[in-house]
Amino acid sequence: MAQAVTFQDLEAALYWVSAGAPSENAAYISKATGQVFYASSVHDTEDEMPEDIDDASLYWSVPHKNELGLGRDLALRFADEYLSGEYRTVQSYFHRQGAYSRFKELLSRRSELDHWHQYEQTATEFALRAWAAENGLAVKPAHPKSEA
């Protein structure tokens, strides 16, 4: 039977994978133990990778945020829904480097930065939980309720 991971561990794995360009960082979750392994082609990690880490029957490979629609697509969705008249501006940001810094500057000017962070957090949680369910990965609460 596959082990479960906490949402916090799953979210940390997503952030690790998404901290670099696609394929730079990777995170794997053992289906037998629920242990998360971190790998990188550009950074040293302390994790020693199991020899069978590429075996999809034994490990889940955590996706990059772009694979879950949480990168540019999410920013554009937010612009469409909440930044009246700024969709094309935001879209233009993503045609060159520095898109997120320009996007966040716009959010700050429009007093929408906190709203964006909440929107992004909600979308991330929804997408991660959906990905986990689709892949048969159980997500457990961080702190099981103790009985009083």
Descriptive account of the structure:
The protein is α+β, with helices and mostly antiparallel strands. Strand 2 and strand 3 form a beta hairpin. 43% of the residues lie in helices and 12% in strands. The strands form two sheets. Strands 3-2-4 form a three-stranded antiparallel beta sheet, covered by helices on one side. A two-stranded parallel sheet has the order 1-5. Helix 1 crosses helix 5. 20% of the residues are buried.
Brief digest:
The chain is of the alpha+beta class and 148 residues long. The chain is 43% helix and 12% strand.
Question: Which descriptors apply to this entry?
Answer:
single chain; 148 residues; alpha+beta; 3-stranded antiparallel beta sheet; two-stranded parallel sheet; 5 helices; 5 strands; 12% strand; elongated
**What is the number of helical segments per DSSP (H or I, 4+ residues)?**
5
Number of strands: 5
Query: Biggest sheet, strands in spatial order?
Result: 3-2-4
Low-confidence stretches: none
Mean pLDDT: 91
Residue fraction in strands:
5-15%
Shape: elongated
Main beta sheet:
3 strands, antiparallel
| H-E string | EHEEEHHHHE
Q: Structural class of the secondary structure composition?
A: alpha+beta
Span between termini: 30 Å
Proportion in helices = 40-55%
> Any idea what the radius of gyration is?
18 Å
